[in-house]
Write a structure and sequence with these properties.
By secondary structure, this protein is mostly helical. Among the domains are: 3-77, Winged helix-like DNA-binding domain superfamily/Winged helix DNA-binding domain (Arc Repressor Mutant, subunit A, Orthogonal Bundle); 239-261 and 285-361, Winged helix-like DNA-binding domain superfamily/Winged helix DNA-binding domain (Arc Repressor Mutant, subunit A); 381-458, Winged helix-like DNA-binding domain superfamily/Winged helix DNA-binding domain (Arc Repressor Mutant, subunit A), CATH 1.10.10.10; 464-562. Helix content is 56%, strand content 8%. The chain has 21 helices and 11 strands. It has helices spanning 3-17, 19-31, 36-43, 47-59, 79-83, 88-113, 118-132, 141-153, 205-220, 239-260, 287-298, 315-321, 330-342, 379-389, 392-404, 409-416, 420-432, 460-488, 490-508, 513-520, 525-564; strands at residues 34-35, 63-67, 73-77, 116-117, 157-159, 234-237, 313-314, 348-352, 358-361, 437-442, 452-457. The strands form 4 sheets. A 3-stranded antiparallel β-sheet has the order 1-3-2. The chain has a 3-stranded antiparallel β-sheet with strand order 4-6-5. It has a 3-stranded antiparallel β-sheet with strand order 7-9-8. DNA-dependent RNA polymerase catalyzes the transcription of DNA into RNA using the four ribonucleoside triphosphates as substrates. Specific core component of RNA polymerase III which synthesizes small RNAs, such as 5S rRNA and tRNAs. GO terms for molecular function: single-stranded DNA binding.
Length: 566
């Protein structure tokens, strides 16, 4: 684990869980798997504090535990899962786009609490939606639960592993830690619950105090609330399914940028023969991407997250699944599928002739795949870095090496049309940054410099790792900058919150406009301008974090798919 990753993980843990959890998580990240005793000694915290911090981390799947052969339990931090916290806003926004406000809040609640029972998540979301509605309107539990079922059916959420039931007559001593497991066929099975009810609005302060006293009295008397019908069945967000959706979006965009741009006019081969009929002018310009989107939608649940291809789909099945508004014939669909299958980038591959022809989509990224998403992957991600750090001439040399693979320094000078001194300086600068590498090819066994070819080439994996490292550093710098902005304006923010609370209470009691205006004037004009500048700066930092995370996702996917290659 690099120092940039460690620093970013520590900042994420501190921002979302506090200093104690950050200290425990940072200790595990630095030292690797450790038992509780060593963890207490390393952090200097009380044993109870360390235990509670571990409970929080395990609750959010940020730490795993394993029973050792001698019976001790060791805890290990999951750095890759901690870094996913940075992508939470994107998960939530995707759920909102696909399933509306109920889907957005369900995913948000599950990410906020780690895992929740279905009944608890539905009640929380219904209450939150009711709060945003007009007086007299409420959100019904059935509407939220139907969205929950749709999320489970499309595998965006999944059940958490549970402790398997042990035989009652077993006399074996209990294990030091439970082994959690769940069958794959049960991961997306939603329990049959009759959730009847409506969302509730927040009570007034007096009613809340009365309810708290009542709950405390019940606890003292030994009473307990009714056990929920799905007690013991917990749900969590399936992050890999979201990543599969992101890759599908990139693939559809790649098809649209390459194929649909040219399907509005006839293609001709080098010999002049027409490859596409003139009738293609009559069809929507986004047909190719819509065909790919339909195929991805049909195989979204059946395709494993690490698979290189989708499941084979017949032409007849694809035709029946096209959106109702797409009035294209079966023959035209076959022409589009043949066009996609014949494309050099091989977005779609033909795997058989049954059912009018069966087709698959390549979803693997990296050298094993012959295409890259439109967000240049990873080569285009490097071009802006080169332009910013080294200038346009270095970017020209980099593109040249990508295209020609291996070149001598003299060839680089000639092809790039750059003076020898400048080309040599630029090549050495990129070599020092691991953007390019130097390969020696000797003519004789003695490796004499005068009888050796020195070829420059681009090591894509090393360049991708370097760029990923810089992205981690950039996000950490952005987070620290946001925290600095908040600290510098802490007093002003607290004052603004107090004024907003006073205004809310006065509006609830029906105060006059003059009284409200008098309270608003507690914040002066310069302070209001300072607050607006702070809000604008924080929004820019948040947007920058999301943009950098998109690049991180592309690079991580590329490196992961390359490492999986046999």
């Amino acid at each position: 684990m690099t120092q940039a990753e460690l620093r970013l993980c520590s900042l994420l843990l501190q921002e979302h869980f506090g200093e104690i959890v950050e200290k425990v998580g940072n200790s595990l990240l630095r030292t690797g798997p450790r038992p509780l005793r060593l963890l207490v000694g390393d952090t200097g915290l009380l044993p109870d504090q360390v235990k509670k911090a571990l409970c929080v981390l395990i609750q959010h799947s940020l730490v795993r535990y394993e029973v050792q052969p001698r019976g001790s339990v060791e805890y290990e931090a999951r750095s890759e899962r901690i870094l996913r916290i940075l992508r939470y806003p994107r998960y939530i926004y995707t759920a909102k786009t696909l399933y509306g406000d109920p889907g957005e809040l369900l995913v948000e609640e599950l990410l906020l609490h780690g895992h929740l029972p279905m009944s608890c998540a539905v009640a929380r979301v219904a209450d939150r939606l009711t709060e945003t509605m007009e007086d007299g309107k409420t959100m019904d539990y059935t509407e939220v639960s139907s969205t929950f079922v749709r999320l489970a059916d499309t595998h965006f959420i999944q059940r958490c592993p549970i402790v398997p039931e042990s035989p009652r007559n077993s006399k074996a001593p209990p294990a030091p830690a439970p082994a959690l497991a769940i069958a794959e066929k049960d991961m997306y099975v939603v329990p049959r619950l009759s959730l009847v009810g409506k969302g509730k609005r927040r009570h007034s302060c007096d009613e809340e105090e009365e309810g708290a006293h009542k709950a405390k009295r019940q606890k003292q008397e030994g009473g307990s609330s009714e056990t929920p019908p799905d007690d013991g069945i917990y749900w969590q967000v399936n992050l890999e399914r979201f990543h599969q959706h992101f890759r599908a979006q990139a693939l559809v965009s790649a098809v649209a940028s390459r194929m649909d741009q040219v399907c509005g006019f006839p293609f001709h081969s080098h010999s002049g023969a027409e490859l596409l009929p003139l009738s293609f002018l009559l069809f929507p310009i986004q047909t190719s991407s819509e065909v790919v989107r339909t195929m991805l939608r049909m195989s979204e649940v059946t395709t494993a997250s690490g698979a290189s291809h989708t499941q084979p789909l017949s032409s007849n099945e694809i035709f029946r699944s096209l959106p109702a508004g797409y009035n294209i014939g079966k023959q035209v669909l076959d022409q589009y599928l043949a066009l996609l299958a014949d494309d050099p980038l091989e977005f779609v591959g033909k795997s058989g002739d049954s059912g009018g022809g069966t087709y698959t989509i390549k979803v693997m990224w990296g050298p094993g795949a012959s295409w890259a998403p439109p967000s240049p992957f990873p080569h285009p991600s490097l071009i802006p870095l080169l332009l910013h750090s080294f200038g346009s001439r270095c970017a020209r040399i980099f593109r040249l090496l990508l295209r020609k693979k291996h070149l001598e320094q003299k060839q680089v000078e000639d092809f790039a049309m750059i003076p020898a001194k400048e080309a040599k300086d630029m090549l050495y600068r990129m070599l020092s940054e691991n953007l390019v590498s130097l390969q020696e090819i000797p003519k004789t066994p003695d490796h004499a410099p005068s009888r050796t070819f020195y070829l420059y080439t681009v090591n894509v994996m090393a360049a991708a790792r370097m760029l990923l490292h810089r992205c981690y550093k950039s996000v950490a710098n952005l987070m620290e900058r946001r925290q600095h902005e908040m600290r510098e304006n802490k007093r002003l923010l607290e004052k603004s919150q107090r004024v907003e609370a006073i205004l809310a209470s006065m509006q609830a009691t029906g105060a006059e406009a003059a009284q409200l205006h008098e309270v608003e004037e507690m914040i002066t004009g310069p302070e209001r301008q300072q607050l607006e500048n702070l809000k604008r700066n924080v929004n820019k930092i948040d947007a920058s974090e999301n943009q950098v995370d998109e690049t991180i996702f592309v690079l991580e996917s590329f490196i992961e798919s390359t490492m999986k290659r046999p």
